[in-house]
Amino acid sequence: MSGPRMTVVFATRDRATLLPRVLDRFAELQSPPGGWSLVVVDNGSRDRTVEVLRSYTDRLPLTALSCPQPGKNRALNAALQHLQGDLAVFTDDDVLPEPDWLVRLRAAADSHPEADLFGGTVLPDWPQPKPDWLCERAVEFSVLYAQQRRPSGACGFADIFGPNMAVRSAIFAAGTRFAEHVGPDDTNPLYAMGSETELLRRLEGAGHRGWFEASACVRHIIRPEQMEERWILNRAFRYGVGEGRHYAGRRSVGLLVRRLVYGIAARGSALLPPSPRRLRIRYRDRWLAGVAAGRPAARASPPSG
């Protein structure tokens, strides 16, 4: 049975070591009805990423593009003119999809014509056992590692995460683009997170509806350094910056007071051994600092610790 084609898109930068593992998994994907294509945008890599991509052109329906100007969303926008078919599937360069991933997304899009935005399950792929202090009682793994688990059904923009996201191509054909002032950017290590969220929030506001397909599953590779407290606190700050920008027009009652209280608590907890409570306090402190820094006229300061 044939059907409309779909295109998978992701941006990459300096991932020559990791990409073979990712692309090997893509080569094992079951082809959905109508087939699929893959567009990968190299975002100014300084390693052998381009060579790795070229080595897979005989194993994958792969088009490799170049966008040397830093910025993940700039790279994704460069890919939009190369979309084929009616469904654009976005993911990351550190994702391992299940073999039936595209088949499941295709079935969801065909079964729910009322929806234009689609999401699926995202599970962490841990490199080693987690320490006791790194747990979901302390921090949201959805923020840290893009973990997302929920039942299938109608959903809002907040239920769809970047590693497993699909949008009907007609939306981009009508002129919609990713906002280039948010998202990963090599020129700013403390960039504002939330690039996919910003797009999806905008589309939902324009009346587009979402559907979550739990059976469409990918695993998100977690690097060892992403299990260290310093990385977690930096991510908390970037997440806060993104929230501050998204809600810049609103007044946060008591933000200054909360920053003061958590700042004092964070300095005290830093003297204690690692624990879920210590991580929760220090994470909240850096998130609040990011929210303040992301507001208009605010200057982002580097995270402590």
Automatic annotation (TrEMBL):
Transmembrane segments: none annotated. InterPro entries: Glyco_trans_2-like (IPR001173), Glycosyltransf_2 (IPR050834), Nucleotide-diphossugar_trans (IPR029044). It comes from the Bacteria. Residues 7-172 form the Glycosyltransferase 2-like domain. PANTHER family: GLYCOSYLTRANSFERASE (PTHR43685), GLYCOSYLTRANSFERASE 2-LIKE DOMAIN-CONTAINING PROTEIN (PTHR43685:SF2). This is Glycosyltransferase family 2 protein. It comes from Belnapia mucosa.
